Amino acid sequence: MQRNVLDEINNTKMSRYQWFVILICLFLNVIDGFDVMVMAFTAPSVSAEWALSGAQIGILLSAGLFGMAAGSIFLAPLADKIGRRFLILICLIIAGLSMSACGLVQNHSMLAALRFITGVGVGGILASSNVLASEYANARWRSLAVSLMSTGYGIGATLGGVLTFVLIEHLGWRSVFLAGGITTLIMFAFAVWLLPESLDYLLAKKPVRALENTNMILQRMQLTPLQMLPESVQAEQQKGSDVAKLFRGQQGFQTLCLWFAFFLVMFGFYFVMSWTPKILIAMGMSRDQGVSTGILISIGGFLVQRLLGF
Predict the structure, then answer these.
(1) DSSP character for 138?
(2) Could you give the residue ranges of the DSSP H alpha helices within 241-286?
(3) How far apart are CA 179 and CA 164, in angstroms?
């Protein structure tokens, strides 16, 4: 009888290695939160240096978000073809290099372009790391794993605000982007060393050395190694991943409503997070007060996510 490894993971006690993988994915989300929200905290200083209009600041704040959407739509699906680990590594390089380059630009147009590229990398990382954490969690702890991933983004945004507050005062706004880029590249080095491939991908696509890599992961998870890769997993996964199933019968209307509701939630979240510091400064507050308020919003979001998640 053929073993179903994914079912075994769902019904087996979580190992330390599984929690370790989820922790790595959490750190990836922390980096993403920093990389995306750093523009909101540096916008007042950037605007002051280049005398930017509200429309130009809006482009800078939106560029990274449009990049995230593009990365999630166009890059994330590649994970099913090249593997989630490889895609995350590629996206870390994209985000790290473009983030670092943001600290060297001399005009807002180039900064907007680089922010878009950073967002592309972040979008690919977010989509892939969330799925990877979910795959390595068993059925009992999967909801907690997803909740932890959500808090990672808030932690990153909060740390980005605090770091911005310190660095701008002593080194200027460019140093914030350089710090974010270097941190992302350091995370790339750790991911190369520690981040495993998706078991779902290994079992379904059967890349080169799939059996060896699968058994190495299973041993770390304290599960019995496989003698051979199962034959039916790929077909089952392809059938289950058919997007058209979301629109069959009455599910089509429900799917569209869910997408629209989620879009509105994200619209409100990013609007408040991105524009609050700039709006408060325009109303007469100092730069430090505006950034501090943005940090408090990030902390509040993190606390609510933690309470709801646990």
Answers:
(1) -
(2) 251-282
(3) 10
